[in-house]
Write a structure and sequence with these properties.
The chain is α+β, with helices and mostly antiparallel strands. The chain has one domain: Trna Endonuclease, Chain: A, domain 1, CATH 3.40.1350.10. It contains two helices and five strands; from the N terminus they run H-E-E-E-H-E-E. It has a five-stranded mixed beta sheet with strand order 1-2-3-4-5.
């Protein structure tokens, strides 16, 4: 049984995937897991492999979704992306971009904000 938070996250990821697809991206995989890491959405945008971290926000009081992606979380996404590329060599010659999509549920209808190239390996 899913918690309300899990249901919100799943709905946010679905809306984000629909948004990305409607803007010309092709979804390759969703919720790809390796060890303790997960990639929310993996897509292709022209010649780039795009790893998308989705943040679903219900309450604005705790800060925006963009502010909720810590450096440690960014590092985990990057490490998990390397594992994905190791297991999927067909993408190894593509550029890699890390995007963030924030789905704000405190507005109706939900507001979607897309930040291409939001972070990179440090």
């Amino acid at each position: 049984m899913q918690t309300n938070r899990q249901q919100l996250g799943e709905k946010g990821e679905q809306l984000a995937a629909e948004y990305l697809t409607s803007n010309g991206m092709r979804i390759v995989d969703r919720n790809w897991r390796f060890n303790h890491g997960e990639l929310d959405i993996i897509a292709i945008d022209e010649s780039d492999l795009v790893v998308v971290e989705v943040k679903s926000v219900r309450v604005q009081a705790f800060g925006s979704g963009e502010e909720r992606i810590s450096p440690a979380q960014q590092k985990k996404v990057i490490e998990t992306t390397f594992a994905f590329l190791d297991q999927h060599p067909q993408y190894e010659n593509m550029g890699v971009r890390f995007d963030v999509v924030v789905v704000n549920f405190f507005k109706y209808p939900a507001e979607i904000r897309h930040y291409p190239g939001a972070f990179w390996q440090t």
